[in-house]
Amino acid sequence: MDLKKGTLRQVLLITDGCSNHGEDPIAMAALAKEHGITVNVIGILEERNEEYHRKGLKEVEEIAMAGGGVSQIVYTSQLSQTVQMVTRKGMAQTIQGVINSELSQILGKDAVIEDLAPQQRGEVMEVADDLGETMDLEVLILVDASGSMEKKLATVQESLIDLSISLNARMGFNQFSLYAFPGKREECEQLIDWTPRLNTLSSIFSKLSSGGITPTGPALKVALAEFTDRLSKRRMISGDEEYIEGSGF
Amino acid sequence: MMRNTSKAQDFKFQAGERIVGKWHHHEYTILSVLGAGATGTVYLAQHKSGKVALKVGFETPSIISEVNVLKHFAKVQGTVLGPSLIDVDDHVADGTIIPFYVMEYLDGVSLFSFMKQHQQEWLSVFFLQLLSDLQLLHQAGWVFGDLKPDNVLIVGPPYRIRWLDVGGTTQIGRSIKEYTEFFDRGYWGLGSRVAEPSYDLFACCMIMVNIAYPKRFEKLKAGNDQLKEAVMHSPLLAPYAPVIKKGLYGNYASAEAMKQELLSLLHKKKHVMPQQQAKTTVASSRIQHKKQSRHNKRGVAFELLLLGTFFLVVYFFYLWSQSM
Ligand SMILES: Nc1ncnc2c1ncn2[C@@H]1O[C@H](COP(=O)(O)OP(=O)(O)OP(=O)(O)O)[C@@H](O)[C@H]1O
Ligand SMILES: [Mg+2]
Q: Start and end of every VWFA domain (chain A) (predicted)?
């Protein structure tokens, strides 16, 4: 990721875990990370069915770890706040990673913020906060729409609108895109193309017929392809690495 | 990644434990746990200068951010916004770095437990105090953000509402990062999550609503009139209803403007104590309606009559409480 270009790229995966089809989602998340894309994961639990979810839990954590992102397990009722918190933490973590690597250029290999005296940490943190507030952000949301998720999709939709309210209060510019897996015809289907706001979702998930498979890996692969496509298109148009898309102001 | 600090998450100080900061070498002795929240644990500790509150965070960045805010608060001169910052340092245990900061210990009780033990007119006192503090904070360019009963404390006597947990404090114009749904106007569809004075004023009104409805309530699908109705149906909130409603709908440009309207509202009704209202709901609210529309001589006579009635009622309650 390049801070100067001012865009953070994130995948937000919302699932109850337990993928069962196609590529290994953990490998796909690791691949995304190599491309400078952070993968954050939210695992949705149902109070009743804890046994089923024990398996999913592990997958949720492993995908986020491989994707350099943040994961959080949540019950359906607390989804809204979690979605915004995870996204913010994911952004902060990505920024922190870059700042740490700059620190080690100054202070030597493997330097971390704790090596600084408390007074100087404050200044570094203010830089990180500034970046989190002002950088442009692209979030590709991947929603698990497999059978086990069916009843939760209304809440997921609500929480995504809420996420858009939160992020659109930032000074930086936002773009969202929404995909669901499995889709009607493909393993992963785009439901909403890139847009600055998610307030237009009118029961967007209703069109989906939930099949028996959960192709989390293939969905992450589609997300990665979308980001790289988008990036190369932009380069063709602008012919310039430094091109900054739109401005929030 | 943060080296070693992931372990700080499971870290617990024991009572009696001595902590010496790595950088400033100040010594603290842990006395007890004051509270724990989403971002860390706060301990009561003894320093040679007296009792202090010592916060250990789960993550270094959140501790640094809170320290930054407390430092900015120190610059708002001559006032007491939030606990004052005393020290920032690291504790090192078995090679693990545990960042902590030390602040003024606020010896007080929660708003809820205070209101259980005191009469309701205190509510207007704290409402006004909150608005005065918010005005200063906003003037300094900040918004509190996560304003809720959990994040305030009543200290004294003399009783004063004070802020704890400045973790949600945000510069005006930026985005609110920490909030609690019930107190967040975004959740209720009544505004954005941009940090601006009206964001805090909404939360301030919701604190009042929460006192009237301690169990809180959830958003209904229908939408916006739900809060208005909650305010109107509460005898406790009746004295403040016009101001609360305007605050909820973002109709005040500043905390000061809201405070002035609240003052004149309370002034008009100074002889009808909230205490009485809560107990004689329907009748007293009818009386208030009349009162607001009268400002002539008959009104004065009427008010005298009311005053008399009021003292009778108070006397009655006095007798009644003696007989219990
Ligand atoms: N300066 C202080 N003096 C006395 N008590 C304090 C002080 N600071 C914090 N506390 C107590 O510790 C509790 C937790 O502190 P604080 O709210 O800062 O933690 P937190 O992790 O930010 O919590 P959350 O974000 O979940 O509200 C408070 O609710 C309060 O009871
Ligand atoms: Mg708190």
A: 1-95
Quick one: tokens of A127?
């830089």
What's the pLDDT score for residue A198? 84
Is it the case that residue B86 has pLDDT exceeding 50?
A: yes
Asked if residue B167 belongs to a domain, the reply is yes
Please check whether residue B220 is in contact with residue B228, taking contact to mean a CB–CB distance below 8 angstroms: no
Q: Residue B90: closest CA among chain A residues belongs to which residue?
A: A118
B304: confidence class by pLDDT, cuts 50, 70, 90: low
Last residue of a domain, one of B104, B123, B144: B104
Q: Do A188 and A11 form a contact (C-beta atoms < 8 A)? A: no
Q: CA-CA-CA-CA torsion for B10, B15, B17, B19, nearest 10 degrees?
A: 70
Nearest to B176 among A122, A129, A169 (CB): A169
Contact A118 B71 (CB under 8 A): no
> Do A25 and A19 touch, CB atoms closer than 8 A?
yes
Question: Is B119 found in the same domain as B91?
Answer: no
3.40.630.30, 3.40.50.410, 3.30.450.20, 3.30.70.100: CATH of A7-238: 3.40.50.410
- CA A241/CA B56 separation, integer angstroms: 42
Residue of A nearest to B22 (CA): A117
**CB spacing of A118 vs B99 below 8 angstroms:** yes
Residues of chain A above pLDDT 70, percent: 84
Q: Strand order of the sheet with strand B160-163? A: B108-109, B152-155, B160-163
Looking at the structure, tell me whether residues B145 and B195 fall in a common domain.
yes
Q: What CA–CA distance (Å, rounded) separates B169 from B151?
A: 12
Please identify, among B72, B104, B136, the residue that sits at the C-terminal boundary of a domain.
B104
Residue B75 maps to a domain: yes
> Are B133 and B264 found together in one domain?
yes
User: What pairing do the DSSP bridges indicate for beta strands B142-143 and B96-104?
Assistant: unpaired
User: Which residue carries 């063709």 as its tokens?
Assistant: A236
pTM for the full model?
A: 0.78
Apex CA A136: angle with CA A130 and CA A141, to 5°? 120
Residues of chain A with pLDDT under 70: 1-5, 46-54, 109-110, 200-202, 207-211, 237-249
Residues of B belonging to the active site: 146
ipTM surpassing 0.90: no
Name the domain count of chain B.
2
The pLDDT > 90 percentage for chain A reads 23
User: Cα(B150) to centroid of ligand 2, in Å?
Assistant: 6
Domain assignment present for residue B288? The answer is: no
Give the torsion sign (CA, B225, B226, B231, B232): positive
Determine the length of chain A: 249
Beta bridge partners of A181: A144
Looking at residue B83, its pLDDT comes to 87
- B181 has a chain A CB within 8 A of its CB: yes
